[in-house]
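Researcher: Good morning. I'm working through a list of sequences from a screen, and I'd like to move beyond sequence-only analysis. For each chain I'm collecting a predicted structure so we can compare shapes side by side. This is the next one on the list. No need for commentary yet; just the structure.
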Amino acid sequence: MSKFKIPVKWIENQLPVQPGLYFVASRYKTGFGSYDYMDWDGEQWLKDESITVVGWVALCDFLKLIDAGWPLGDDEDKEFDESFLKYKSEDDGGFVEVK
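Model: Good morning. Structure tokens for this chain:
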């Protein structure tokens, strides 16, 4: 797998407004830093006290930067195909697939 730089526009020194899952840059008391996904409950990060969030980006914005395709083996899942065709022949309740 090749390594690519992804141009993330980190939000720093500001807390999120909406509760949800975010992509974060975290710093630990040891000085070690890492990327992670973290929940924000609307008031605080749901994390251990030893972790400092130094930057974050909404997960939906982060995922817009990635075009990962889809696992090829899923296209070969015959059970899914049969289930999908059965579901499609019934009322789909307004389901719309977006590509």
